[in-house]
Amino acid sequence: AQTVTQSQPEMSVQEAETVTLSCTYDTSESNYYLFWYKQPPSRQMILVIRQEAYKQQNATENRFSVNFQKAAKSFSLKISDSQLGDTAMYFCAFMKHPQGGSEKLVFGKGTKLTVNP
Amino acid sequence: ETGVTQTPRHLVMGMTNKKSLKCEQHLGHNAMYWYKQSAKKPLELMFVYSLEERVENNSVPSRFSPECPNSSHLFLHLHTLQPEDSALYLCASSQDQGFVNEQFFGPGTRLTVL
Fold first, then answer.
1. What is the pLDDT of residue A104?
2. How many CB pairs under 8 A join A and B?
3. For residue range B38-72, what is the model confidence (pLDDT) as tens digits?
4. Rounded Cα gap, residues B30 and B47, in angstroms
5. Can you tell me whether residue A84 is helix, strand or coil?
6. I want to staple B74 with a disulfide (CB 3.0 to 4.6 A). Which of A3, A32, B23, B34 is the partner?
7. Nearest to B37 by CA among B87, B77, B82
8. Domains of chain A, earliest start first
9. A102 contacts in B (CB within 8 Å)?
10. Burial level of A54, CB count in 10 A (0-12/13-18/19+)?
């Protein structure tokens, strides 16, 4: 079974600074996908960024980028130029490549990020 | 409305009550999901429906009963719940089940069982 570990329950960062959220996972699969989801207070969870394991290049979405280290099974999220609206719970998630079966996301416990003015 | 909606947003019920949670998606998706989000625990997948057929039941107790009358609506019927069932219940949908599509989440129903 796959597991996802987020070792930082809470983090804080000053506005405009950069912060990195950690995520490690355990799997015996070679073909899989990794995601970061954001859940703002009292708002819907939304996808921030995703990475295909077969791609060596790290995914980037505007101020959000990942550091994907496949051998180390590490998938950290870097948020540059942090904004107050980035305050949220961030969940790392894993999905093995669907092969006619369920599209099952396995989530970590989350990291609560607070951006301070 | 657009996206994934859930009603009610908050629900308080006793252990002997019967209630239902409703989820509706306006995205034309074919797959819908129920998740349970408890404090300090990872999100737990409960059920997956694809084209109105249940394709996964993740060892969920029978006091939770899902229903998917069509691809736009998903219900979670609750009866004889326990206080440990108190949690945020999230509904999600995706274009297809079995493909790596983004899952879109609803705002959740905050359930408190007394």
1. 79
2. 55
3. 987 889 999 989 888 887 777 899 999 999 999 89
4. 14
5. helix
6. B23
7. B87
8. 3-98+105-116 (2.60.40.10)
9. 48, 55-56, 97-98
10. exposed
Q: What is the pLDDT of residue A26?
A: 95
Chain B stretch 52-71, residues whose beta carbon is closer than 8 A to a beta carbon of chain A = 55-56
Q: Which of A105, A18, A49 is nearest to B92 (CA)?
A: A105
How confident is residue B83, by pLDDT bands cut at 50, 70 and 90? very high
Q: Which of A103, A107, A109, A112 to mutate to test the interface with B (most CBs of B within 10 A)?
A: A103
- Location of structure tokens 């996964």: B56
Tell me the three state secondary structure of residue B89: strand
- Name residue, tokens 């703002």: A40
Structure tokens at A74: 């590490």
What lies within 8 Å, CB to CB, of B86 at 6+ separation is B111, B112, B113
Residues A19, A113 contacting (CB under 8 angstroms) = yes
Of A100, A105, A110, the CB nearest to B103: A105
